[in-house]
Amino acid sequence: MIKYIFKKMLLSMKTRYDYDVRYMQDILKTSLGAFLKLMGFQTMSSHSGNLPPEPLYAARLRAIIWDDCGPCTQLVVNMALEEKVDPEIVRAIIDRNMDELPEEIALVVRFTEFVLAHNPEADDLREQILELWGQEGLITLAYCISSYRVYPALKYALGYGKACSRIKVNEDSLAPTRSDTLAMGAEHD
User: Fold this and answer.
1) Which of 30, 66, 78, 119 has its CA 20 to 30 A from that of 174?
2) Mean pLDDT along residues 60-72
3) Whole-angstrom distance, CA of residue 164 vs CA of residue 162
């Protein structure tokens, strides 16, 4: 019975977001225990703490773009739009157009990329994040950054990775922009 409920939940997600859920269906079909662990992990990745949706999705999008340039990124875009994040902000996050982002959102974009690159410049930005949203906000962003990288890795490991594709934000079609800061962390390890 529980597998039936989870199957319906996955089909609902597929329909709602036009997202390929086959990798989750295969996990469920193979091992209920493994699927329950994935569901438990999703409670971490969906944590929003005290943050408004814009900084949440700035961290989630930049983290997922680090490892994916296709369906996972599109899913997060669709979720951001569903949460009423302004499409112009979503586009600017995807394009990494810092001049078009509010200062707080640009801060989150830079912080996310410095964290992922293991760049020590994240330390200064962390202090600014603490001033804005406190320890709870920092923990929430840390969850966003770390957990959103899991989905592309899981899909690729299971053989469901896709080639890059353009991301749609309403009627616009974009190619995710990756930052030059991605390589900076290697110098500091």
Assistant:
1) 119
2) 89
3) 6
pLDDT at 164 over 70: no
Paired tokens of 123: 């330390």
Distance between CA atoms of residues 164 and 72, nearest Å:
10
User: Would you say 45 and 143 are in contact if contact means Cβ atoms under 8 Å apart?
Assistant: yes
> Which stretches of the chain are DSSP H helices?
2-17, 22-30, 32-45, 53-67, 71-82, 87-95, 103-116, 122-147, 150-157
What is the pLDDT confidence band of residue 189, given thresholds at 50, 70 and 90? very low
What does pTM read for this prediction? Answer: 0.86
Which residue is listed with tokens 């157009």? 97
Contacts of residue 171, defined as CB under 8 A and 6 or more positions apart, other chains included, come to none
Spell out the domain ranges in the chain. 1-45, 48-188
- Say how far apart CA 64 and CA 85 lie, in whole Å: 17
Q: Which tokens is 114 given?
A: 């410095």
Integer angstrom CA distances of residue 43 from 36, 48, 143: 11, 10, 10
